[in-house]
Structure formats: C-alpha cells, structure tokens
Amino acid sequence: MKSLIKKTIAVGAMVLFGLSLSYGQSYEKGDNLLNLGVGFGGSLGMPMGISFEHGFSDKISGGIYAGYASKKENFGVASAKWTYILGAARASYHFNFNVEGLDPYLGVILGYNYAKSELTGNMAGWSADAGGLVYGGHAGARYFFSQKFGVFAEVGYGLGNLNAGLTFKL
Predict the structure, then answer these.
(1) Dist CA 38 CA 41 (whole Å)
(2) Tens of pLDDT, residues 39-54
(3) How many CB atoms lie within 10 A of CB 61?
(4) What are phi and psi of 56, to 5 degrees?
(5) At a CB cut-off of 8 Å and minimum separation 6, what does 16 contact?
(6) Is 65 left (phi over 0), alpha (psi -120 to 50) or beta?
(7) What's the pTM?
(8) For the chain, is the Cβ count within 10 Å smaller at the N or the C terminus?
(9) Pairing state of beta strands 48-55 and 149-156?
C-alpha cells in the first residue's frame, strides 16, 4: 500500500512539474472558466462548490455559483443533520499584475441560500428549514499551469471561509 501511495505521489509531482513548464495564460475576454472546489474554515463539514464564469470584457466576468454542504452529529440520544444549498450569480473584476499565469480578481455574489436541519432518535420528526436572499463579496486568484488547467483560491462569501480547488478554461 505504501508503495502505491509513493508511486501516486511521484506521478502526480511529475505531472504538476510538466504542467508548470507549459505556457500559462491569465484571464482574457471570451474566457469560459469552470472552478471545482471545496471549502475550509467553516462549521459545515466539507462543503463543495462549482462556479462558471464567462469573460465579457478583458476586466469583467460573470456567471453562476452552486454550493452544497452537509454535516451530521450524534448526541447519544439524538442525531442531527444539517444541509446547506447555495445558488447565486457572481461577477468579478480581474486585475493584471503582468505575472504569467496569474489571474487575481475581486467580485460580488447575489443569490439564494437554503438550510435544513433534522433530528432523529429520541427527538425524531423535528425539523426546520429556512432560506433567503444572500449577498457578499469574494477575493481570489487563479494560477494556470497551462492554457487550460490551473488552481484557484478564494476568500469571502461561500460555504467555507476559504474555497480552493481546480480551475479549467473551456
């Protein structure tokens, strides 16, 4: 098993090194960007999110965001499950620091958040849900290892305090 893990890490490192030697290009008008990520630093377990943005100009992009998180806790006599779903429109302003492959941006988000909680065990049958309009901002950056593949990290509104993952130009 250790041998398989070492081989997987070695192959992954070679792939990332090879990608880093490729030409990386930052944001441009007409780009279609897909982010697949997870959230960190919140109380929601391991939230997952996906966003898509289209480049309407060389500085402005707009698109959609969807996120999902679920968390279960056992309290002995009862268990609780929380579920969160977020759907939103987002827009970003892209900066150019003349660093090959880097795409820093600031943006806003406007959408709808749905939350549900359920208890089982001795308190089975109790549940509550809520939802409403949400708005906020984000600051982030993408770094492209090649013309089509990179990584991203964002702070701000989402299902985690920090969201990070893979980004693709379609």
Answers:
(1) 10
(2) 887 777 789 999 999 9
(3) 24
(4) -80, -25
(5) 145
(6) beta
(7) 0.76
(8) N
(9) unpaired
Residue 107 phi/psi, 5-degree rounding, is -160, 180
β partners of residue 149: 168
56-96 pLDDT, tens digit per residue, is: 999 999 999 999 999 888 887 888 888 999 999 999 999 98
DSSP string for residues in 106-168:
EEEEEEEEEEEEEEEETTTT-EEEEEEEEEEEEEEEEEESSSSEEEEEEEESSSSSEEEEEEE
33 neighbors 167 (Cβ within 8 angstroms) = yes
The maximal CA–CA distance of the chain, rounded, in angstroms, is: 60
Overall residue count recorded for the chain in this entry: 170
Rounded Cα–Cα distance for residues 131 and 92 (Å) = 25
Full 3-state SS string of 26-54: CCCCCCEEEEEEEEECCCCCCCEEEEEEE
- In this structure, the strands spanning 60-74 and 78-94 are antiparallel
Which residue's entry shows tokens 């929601």?
44
Residue in this structure with the two tokens 């490192």, named with its chain if needed: 13
